[in-house]
């Protein structure tokens, strides 16, 4: 039975407010300054002093500007760190995010078309179809998705395929492409409903992809097939590599065995027992490419493998809910940064599992761990390379408290050699398939 708020209840609420000591002081402060500025704790900045016992030299930070390519920037940043170390390129050297962005948009379009065809017999009111049409494609992605692109197309230096207006400010392109994809979905579903042949359907899909390719070429430039890589190293020695392909460039200058790098998550919800593999239905970009796969582990293991990789001298891609208890300008992510509970005299606490289950949190951003402060061999805070340019944080680097990692970090990517033997074995199991809208399928 529904019940409206009564006049007596309102009277009681006001009387309770009047009883709160300092209520008028708090009211004046919040109405003038807002919630966060009023509740910020200056001691957090003191505790988040950006000094670390392990601190990798990774060069200058990148800037994704007005785009949602953090997952791509973070992955390419971890790779360029090795190029810095092994080839002594300039601190501002970057791999081309526009190049991988081009292929991601084309591949996501094909992935969307295939999912439209798979669900064409379902009504548009079906939750899966509705989920597909809500966002046919977007800038966000996952580690395994950028690896699928690199395995197929390689990488190039940013100097070979630089940023464009549409890659740095992607809103117009995404709106236009999603309009096209939804329109194409109407036609593909109608073709299936009319019992068109597979040959006719694939021919129409091919024409659609040709149009997407043209949109990408106009917006990001034509993708490079071969190029000359020319640079001077930090010792001023001149180098040139002529007529190299993007895949040859990756093999020579990055040289990773990409199969060695695996996604580790901490999703402490009841439906995801630890030490098992998970994937997400309809999550990906490259059809028949690398599958998104996660190994769910407890936070002690999660933290331990990240520390081991940093100790080895290698940075760590990670995904988190960056907007929680963080200050973008100061570059601080700390559970003690704001005291909203004290300000309002309300208990806002939720467990990590509750936040995931009830929509309060999920992964929204990917960055790179480039350092950690160990006290008695236990981490107290972490150095984070962001991709928001050098005018935030400490020249673009953030500080994350260890307690913040516990609560709001959901994914790290590490070399599987840092996992215990039993977890390396768990990587081989067939993953449980999660629903498309599962929080562990969120895109950074």
UniProtKB/TrEMBL annotation:
<dbReference type="GO" id="GO:0070005">
    <property type="term" value="F:cysteine-type aminopeptidase activity"/>
</dbReference>
<dbReference type="GO" id="GO:0006508">
    <property type="term" value="P:proteolysis"/>
</dbReference>
<feature type="active site">
    <location>
        <position position="365"/>
    </location>
</feature>
<keyword id="KW-0378">Hydrolase</keyword>
<dbReference type="GO" id="GO:0005737">
    <property type="term" value="C:cytoplasm"/>
</dbReference>
<comment type="similarity">
    <text>Belongs to the peptidase C1 family.</text>
</comment>
<feature type="active site">
    <location>
        <position position="70"/>
    </location>
</feature>
<dbReference type="GO" id="GO:0009636">
    <property type="term" value="P:response to toxic substance"/>
</dbReference>
<feature type="active site">
    <location>
        <position position="386"/>
    </location>
</feature>
<dbReference type="InterPro" id="IPR038765">
    <property type="entry name" value="Papain-like_cys_pep_sf"/>
</dbReference>
<protein>
    <recommendedName>
        <fullName>Aminopeptidase</fullName>
    </recommendedName>
</protein>
<keyword id="KW-0031">Aminopeptidase</keyword>
<dbReference type="InterPro" id="IPR004134">
    <property type="entry name" value="Peptidase_C1B"/>
</dbReference>
<dbReference type="InterPro" id="IPR000169">
    <property type="entry name" value="Pept_cys_AS"/>
</dbReference>
<keyword id="KW-0788">Thiol protease</keyword>
<dbReference type="InterPro" id="IPR025660">
    <property type="entry name" value="Pept_his_AS"/>
</dbReference>
<dbReference type="GO" id="GO:0043418">
    <property type="term" value="P:homocysteine catabolic process"/>
</dbReference>
<dbReference type="Pfam" id="PF03051">
    <property type="entry name" value="Peptidase_C1_2"/>
</dbReference>
<keyword id="KW-0645">Protease</keyword>
């Amino acid at each position: 039975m529904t019940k409206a708020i009564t006049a007596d209840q309102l009277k009681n609420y006001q009387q309770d407010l009047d009883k709160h000591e300092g209520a008028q002081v708090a009211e004046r402060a919040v109405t003038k300054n807002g919630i966060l500025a009023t509740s910020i704790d200056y001691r957090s900045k003191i505790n988040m002093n950006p000094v670390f016992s392990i601190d990798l030299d990774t060069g200058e930070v990148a800037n994704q500007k007005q785009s949602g390519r953090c997952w791509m920037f973070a992955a390419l940043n971890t790779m360029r760190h090795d190029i810095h170390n092994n080839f002594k390129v300039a601190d501002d050297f970057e791999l081309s995010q526009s190049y991988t962005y081009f292929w991601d948009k084309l591949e996501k379009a094909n992935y969307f078309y295939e999912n439209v065809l798979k669900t064409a017999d379902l009504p548009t009111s079906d939750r899966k179809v509705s989920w597909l049409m809500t966002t046919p494609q977007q800038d966000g992605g996952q580690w395994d998705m950028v690896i699928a692109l690199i395995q197929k197309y390689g990488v190039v230096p940013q100097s070979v395929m630089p940023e464009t207006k549409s890659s740095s400010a992607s809103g117009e392109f995404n709106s236009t492409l999603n309009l096209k994809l939804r329109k194409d979905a109407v036609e593909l579903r109608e073709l299936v409903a009319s019992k068109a042949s597979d040959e006719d359907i694939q021919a129409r899909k091919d024409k659609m992809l040709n149009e997407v390719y043209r949109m990408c070429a106009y917006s990001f430039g034509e993708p490079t097939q071969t190029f000359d890589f020319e640079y001077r190293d930090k010792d001023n020695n001149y180098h040139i590599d002529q007529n190299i392909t993007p895949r040859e460039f990756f093999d020579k200058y990055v040289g990773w065995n990409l199969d060695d790098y695996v996604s580790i998550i901490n999703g402490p919800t009841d439906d995801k027992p630890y030490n098992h593999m998970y994937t997400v239905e309809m999550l990906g970009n490259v059809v028949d490419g690398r599958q998104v796969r996660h190994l769910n582990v407890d936070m002690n293991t999660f933290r331990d493998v990240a520390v081991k990789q940093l100790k080895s001298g290698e940075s760590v891609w990670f995904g988190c809910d960056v907007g929680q208890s963080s200050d973008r300008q100061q570059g601080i992510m700390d559970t003690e940064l704001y005291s909203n509970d004290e300000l309002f005299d309300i208990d806002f606490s939720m467990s990590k599992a509750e936040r995931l289950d009830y929509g309060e949190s999920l992964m929204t951003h990917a960055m790179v761990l480039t350092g950690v402060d160990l006290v008695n061999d236990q981490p107290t805070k972490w150095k984070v390379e962001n991709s928001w340019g050098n005018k935030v944080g400490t020249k673009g680097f953030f500080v994350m408290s260890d307690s913040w990692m516990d609560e709001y970090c959901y994914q790290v990517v590490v070399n599987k050699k840092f996992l215990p033997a039993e977890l390396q074995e768990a990587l081989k199991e067939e993953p449980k398939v999660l629903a498309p809208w599962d929080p562990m399928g969120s895109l950074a």
